[in-house]
Amino acid sequence: SADKSKNSKKEILRIARERFQLVVEAESEIRKDGLEDLEFRAGHQWPSELKQERDLDARPCLTINRIPQFIRQITNDQRQNRPSIKVFPIDDKADVDTAKILQGLVRHIEYNSNADVAYDTAFEGAVTKGFGYFRVITDYTDPMSFDQEILIKRIRNSFSVYLDPNSKEPDGSDANWGFIFEDIAKDDYIAEYGDSDLAS
After folding, report:
1. 133 within 8 A of 166, measured Cβ to Cβ
2. pLDDT (tens digit per residue) in 142-172
3. How much is the mean pLDDT over the chain?
4. Cβ-based neighbour number of residue 159 at 10 Å
5. CB atoms closer than 10 angstroms to residue 48
6. Minimal CB count within 10 Å: which of 2, 28, 51, 134?
7. 3-class SS at 111?
8. Are strands 148-154 and 161-163 parallel, antiparallel or unpaired?
9. Residue 43, Ramachandran bin (φ over 0: left; ψ between -120 and 50: alpha; else beta)
10. Which of 71, 73, 49 is CA-nearest to residue 61?
11. From start to end of the chain, where are the E strands?
């Protein structure tokens, strides 16, 4: 059964690698455009060959960057009318009191998670470069407990998220799989995954 477990892990990794390659190829153009948008927002608005030519001639490359102002106009509107989860009883089997209790639980989850930060970060990413994400996760209430709580967390780097390219909904809610990755220090990797082949 150890061999069977090892083979199933290899199969999972094979499928994951194929899916990751698929989504990287599918999203390469939008990610390239997103990076260009970030550069443009940062004020790097001159074409590189023209900037080089002007630098060689000792001519200035003036940039009056108005993009952040327009981005702030949109994000400030969103901050004044923040999205939040609402619970409504919608059919004859629904109970208004149950909906109120669920709404209170959702409000507590949002408050406990500082969800406004997650919503704002995702929205700013969407406005700036066309995509932004936050995630709903569970975590243990403390290291010694088996109790878990639901949290809404921000994803600081939108480029670290890859969603199923076959999803049809604009918000990706019908995606069947996705990847979120992060860079970690070598020492942290060895401490966490010391038994892996890569750690050796």
Report:
1. no
2. 888 889 999 999 999 999 999 999 999 988 8
3. 90
4. 16
5. 8
6. 2
7. helix
8. unpaired
9. left
10. 49
11. 134-140, 148-154, 161-163, 178-180
Alpha carbon 50 to its chain centroid, in Å, reads: 34
Helix (H, G, I), strand (E, B) or coil at 200: coil
State CA 173 to chain mean position distance. 13
CA distance 174 to 179: 15
Residue 32, beta-bridge partner list: none
Q: Are 38 and 129 in contact (CB under 8 A)?
A: yes
Cβ proximity of 123 and 131 under 8 Å: no
Ramachandran region, residue 31 (left: φ > 0; alpha: ψ -120 to 50; beta: rest): alpha
Cβ neighbors of 46 (< 8 A, separation 6 or more) are: 54, 61, 63
- Pairwise CA distance, residues 197 & 182, whole Å: 19
Closest CA to 157 of 173, 188, 134, 190: 134
- DSSP track, 142-162: STT---EEEEEEE-S-GGGEE
Q: What is the pLDDT of residue 195?
A: 83
Q: Quote the CA–CA distance of 162 and 176 in Å, as a whole number.
A: 12
With CA atoms as reference, report the closest residue to 154 among 196, 110, 195, 117. Answer: 117
Provide the whole-model pTM: 0.81
> What are the two backbone dihedrals, phi and then psi, of residue 150, each rounded to the nearest 5 degrees?
-90, 135
